[in-house]
Design goal:
Blueprint (H helix, E strand, L loop, with lengths): L19 H14 L3 H13 L1 H5 L7 H36 L5 H23 L15 E2 L2 E2 H19 L1 H5 L2 H22 L16 E7 L4 H5 L8 H7 L3 E3 L2 E2 L5 H10 L3 H4 L17 H7 L3 E6 L15 E3 L6 H6 L5 H6 L5 H4 L15 H11 L6 E7 L20 H25 L6 E6 L5 E2 L6 H4 L11 E2 L7 H4 E2 L1 E6 L8 E3 L3 E2 L3 H8 L4 H4 L8 H4 L6 H4 L3 E4 L14 H9 L2 E4 L4 E4 L4 H5 L4 E5 L2 E7 L7 E7 L6 E3 L9 H13 L7
Parallel strand pairs: 3-8, 3-9, 4-14, 5-15, 6-7, 6-8
Antiparallel strand pairs: 1-2, 4-13, 5-12, 9-13, 10-11, 16-19, 17-18, 19-20, 20-21, 21-22
Helix pairs in contact: 1-4, 1-5, 4-5, 5-6, 17-18
């Protein structure tokens, strides 16, 4: 029973704590009843497909991950218990004024219903994509410009206010309230300070002509054609404004259209074959990073900082040459809790700085896309980046990545296309880009700086125009549709990227230019270091080329014009190539390839599976107007079909053996280069 005779004192009046157990039970019941479908789906997937068992393949659960999940659950329980405590406190506050109208427990239940309803309605309004807000329901409807959820929420607040106003005389005379004034006030002050944090005075970087700041602004999944030719199906006015005075390398590719491999090439100047960063979430021990640009600049006295708002696909930390990282918590909980966090009460707290401590795996984290607000990550950047001396700052914004949504945006109701979804996210990241630039300018980081804006990869949206084969008018697209990134080397919209340099202050590089010379993300490290006057011995071994001469107005030499660039795909499973996103299906297929690194709780590819998924890779070599792609056989491991494209010819050519050099010298040349680059991976 929820109450007994002990709930009453000798006079028959309710005891001081009568109703408190009920309030706490109601809070915990609210937690259970409002568990979002994302959580339900996640755990049903775990039960049916043993996803977690596959992730913890070693047989021993990571104590790091278990501890983080236990902490998350403990916070949820505590918050909802406090919600019940609030209902109890409101009942105590108002029971004398209500007199015989209701007992203590009825008041607790009534207040909890009012508070819970307001939380649900506010959650629906603030986060239209929450599982508690089904598009098309009457709560989401607007009646003559008046939103139902807003109106009901306001009505509840008005009701609460009217009750308190009605009881104002009684409230003033409550001895318990007067006794509680000091501790309540102290608690409220502590809550405010915890919520908004202690802000250190903002520092401003002093310009140093000899050591310009180096700033990399990466934008995940931004198509090159969208960024460079703004005004198409998605507009990016702020990025376009930046590019108007920038040197744009319009013919740039990434060696692998996934985030972690691309960023490893950016940081090291090397191809994924050289770094062994052949997949997202590659085991750290398998990656040969050498000297990153962060290492080189740190040795020159720079403060090096890496910041991103999502890390679920890239275990990039301070070990890659950074003094400071501004990221969500790196590890498997980024994936697990990012998919299971959609609960009304945590949602309302999600954008507050206090959530950095309450929910460290989801605060300012685009993985928790239902509640992610672009401003929350900007707040982290603004607070934590305090320049002191020359600064190397690498920021990666992931808002344009699938699933293309963020907090405050409602999903299209009727069968949204990938194009429509993408069109929601890109303008949002464009605005976020403008805010980041304003912050950098305010902190003095743009007084003297080399700024590079780039995308790690593009994005195919399931259109025929996303495929080279489609552009040639060929109906067969090698067995699968073109969507996403890292899925096909025959999709230029996946591997072509934005790559632009702009100088601020004494850094040079002023003046716009469009440069069509072939470039690669591998070129960033040697180019930036060359701009800073580094000698080749300091830069170290790289696969990229320095583009300094071209950026400063020179003509590209044969080492650039005649270069062969390579690209390849990432993990390709049947669900990934099916032309539609089936999240649960992808989890089922991919889970067996991953494990948890016990000491840090990081998700990583299983070492014993690397050969299997390596055999499924597509690979391509490009030179001038020519492209040669190696497509693995769907039935026979180790066999490939080769597709050769010559932009001067009306149709592509296909073959399984080395082409005749006398008849197709370009194809034979690329065949040899492809086999040399991917030595031993393509057979004879």
């Amino acid at each position: 029973m929820l109450w007994t005779k002990r709930d009453h004192n000798k006079t028959g009046q309710p005891s001081r704590w009568q109703g408190l157990p009920l309030g706490i039970l109601l809070g915990l019941a609210f937690l259970l009843l409002t568990a979002g479908r994302s959580s339900i789906d996640l755990f049903s997937t775990v039960r049916s497909d043993r996803v977690l068992v596959a992730l913890i393949h070693s047989g021993t659960a990571s104590t790091v991950v278990v501890g983080q999940i236990v902490f998350h659950v403990a916070v949820l329980l505590t918050l909802h218990a406090l919600l019940g405590l609030l209902a109890f406190a409101m009942a105590r506050l108002t029971e004398r004024g209500c007199g015989p109208i209701a007992g203590r427990r009825a008041l607790v239940s009534g207040w909890f219903c009012l508070i819970g309803a307001w939380i649900l309605l506010t959650n629906i309004q603030l986060y239209p994509s929450t599982t508690h807000s089904s598009p098309g329901t009457w709560l989401r409807a607007d009646w003559h410009g008046v939103n139902a959820a807003n109106s009901l929420g306001a009505a509840i607040l008005a009701l609460i206010g009217s009750v308190l106003w009605r009881l104002r005389g009684t409230v003033r005379n409550l001895q318990s309230l007067r006794r509680a004034a000091v501790p309540v006030g102290a608690t409220a002050l502590a809550a405010v300070l915890a919520t908004y944090g202690f802000h250190t005075p903002e520092s401003r970087a002093a310009a140093n002509p000899a050591h310009p700041n180096v700033i990399l602004l990466g934008i995940d999944s931004l198509r090159a054609d969208v960024a460079i030719n703004s005004g198409g199906f998605v507009e990016t006015p702020n990025i376009s404004a930046f590019l108007q005075d920038a040197k744009i390398l319009t013919n740039t590719t990434t060696p692998l259209a996934r985030t972690f491999p691309s960023w490893m090439s950016i940081l090291t100047g090397q191809h994924p074959v050289s770094t062994n960063a052949r997949f997202n979430l590659m085991p750290r021990r398998e990656v040969h990073d050498g000297n990153t640009i962060g290492d080189l600049l740190r040795a020159r006295g720079y403060r090096t900082i890496y910041a991103t708002d999502e890390v679920r696909f890239a275990n990039i930390d301070a070990s890659y040459g950074f003094d400071q990282t501004v990221t969500p918590r790196v590890g498997i909980t980024d994936f697990l809790l990012g998919n299971a966090n959609d609960l009304p009460l945590p949602n309302l707290l999600s954008s507050l700085p206090i959530s950095r401590w309450l929910f460290p795996s989801t605060y300012a984290n685009r993985a928790a896309w239902v509640t992610y607000k672009p401003a929350s990550f900007l707040h982290r950047l603004d607070t934590e980046i305090q320049p002191a001396g020359p600064t190397f700052l690498a920021i990666h914004l992931t808002l344009a990545h699938w699933p293309y949504y963020y907090g405050g945006v409602e999903k299209p109701v009727f069968s949204p296309s990938w194009r429509e979804m993408y069109g929601l996210a890109v303008p949002a990241v464009d605005r976020q880009f403008a805010d980041v630039m304003a912050m950098l300018r305010r902190k003095g980081l743009l007084d003297n700086a080399i700024v590079v804006v780039l995308s790690d990869h593009g994005e195919a949206l399931g259109k025929r125009s996303d495929s080279i084969m489609g552009r040639f008018g060929t109906p067969d697209e090698i067995g699968h549709s073109m969507w996403g990134h890292g899925t096909s080397v025959l999709s230029p919209n996946q591997f072509q990227v934005l790559f632009a340099f702009r100088g601020f202050g004494a850094a040079g590089l002023q003046g716009p230019a469009r440069i069509d010379a072939p470039a690669s993300l591998e070129d960033l490290k040697p180019t930036v270091m060359d701009l800073l006057g580094a000698r080749p011995a300091e830069i170290g071994p790289v696969d990229g080329r320095s583009l300094r001469g071209i950026l400063e107005g020179g003509a590209p030499g044969p080492e650039v014009v005649d270069r062969i660039r390579y690209t390849e795909t990432d993990v390709n499973t049947p669900k990934l190539l099916a032309g539609q996103i089936d999240e649960k299906g992808l989890i089922r297929e991919a889970a067996s390839f991953y494990e948890i690194e016990p000491s840090r709780g990081w998700a990583q590819l299983r070492r014993d599976k690397l050969r299997i998924i390596l055999d499924r890779k597509e690979r391509a070599a490009m030179q001038g107007d020519f492209l040669l792609a190696a497509i693995p056989s769907e039935t026979k491991t180790g066999q490939f079909e080769y597709v050769f494209l010559d932009r001067r010819l009306p149709v592509p050519m296909r073959f399984r053996t080395r082409p005749d050099e006398a008849r197709l010298p370009e194809a034979a040349h690329l065949w040899d280069a492809l086999h040399a680059r991917f030595h031993g991976e393509l057979g004879g």
